[in-house]
Amino acid sequence: TVLTTERPALPPVSDLPVELGMRFKSSTPGTITKFRYYKVAGETGTHTGRFWSANGKLLKTATFSAETDTGWQTVTLDTPYSVSADTVYIVSVNALNYYAATSHGMTNAISNGPLSSIAGNNGVYNYTTGAFPNSSYDNTNYFRDIEFVAGQDDPVPPAAPANLSASNITASSVTLNWSAATDNIIALPPCCTSEK
Questions:
Q1: pLDDT per residue over 130-179, tens digit each?
Q2: For the residues of the chain, what is the DSSP string, one character each?
Q3: Is 99 exposed, middle or buried (0-12, 13-18, 19+ CB in 10 A)?
Q4: pLDDT digit string, tens, across residues 65-110
Q5: Residues 6+ apart with CB under 8 A from 24
Q6: Residue from 4, 178, 18, 69 nearest 188 by CA
Q7: CB of 67 closer than 8 Å to CB of 47
């Protein structure tokens, strides 16, 4: 996550339905596995997390369920979404009545491991729910976040299977044998590690 110990500085903000988000990037490639948002007292209804490219292309959505009354809410993506290093993305979650906020909470970058928010022009919103949040006011932190798994750098390609040999050759079958492929990090699929 980008946000760790941060908590809303303002009391719950009452407003019209709005899409609220955070701009962030990772210094390493990896995958987004969950969306998160901080729910304040009085907020009800259905919440949908959305994941956007910096130019506004919708990349992934997920609907929250079994929410608690307040605090961090989390939804797991049906499939993790791969992100590139040093590329800006936006995570957003709609609010229907109330939301968490800290004015100027995104003025400076917030960093946690390879993740960091974008300093300035952050804390984004759009008063059309489900639309790309591209406006910003006072660099407000609206407590929208993600969970991230860093990818493993693997500069060494896997070794190819070796010593292929054929035996028991007939008109309709053949027995193949080979030495298994190996890799220093990635578990290879059975097709590459089995013999015959």
A1: 999 999 999 999 999 999 999 865 556 677 778 888 899 898 888 888 88
A2: ---SS----SPPEE-SSEEEEEEEEESS-EEEEEEEEEE-TT--S--EEEEEETTS-EEEEEE--S--SSEEEEEEEEEEEEE-TT--EEEEEEESSEE--BTTTTSS--EETTEEEPSSS-SEEESSTTS---EESTT-B--EEEEEEEPPP--SPPBPPEEEEEES--SS--EEEEEPPB-SSSPPPHHHH---
A3: buried
A4: 999 999 999 999 999 999 999 999 999 999 999 999 999 999 999 9
A5: 2, 88, 89, 90, 91, 115, 116, 117, 118, 146
A6: 178
A7: yes
d(Cα 144, Cα 101) in Å, to the nearest integer?
10
Give CA angle at 153 (58, 82), nearest 5°. 15
Categorise residue 130: left if φ over 0, alpha if ψ from -120 to 50, beta otherwise.
left
Contact between 22 and 2 under an 8 Å Cβ cutoff? The reply is yes
Task: Report, in angstroms and rounded to the nearest whole number, the Rg of the chain calculated over CA atoms.
Answer: 23
Length of the chain: 196
How many beta carbons lie within 10 A of that of residue 161, not counting itself? 17
How far from chain centre, in Å, is Cα 40?
22
CA–CA separation, 43 and 13 (whole Å): 10
Residue 101 structure tokens: 């906020």
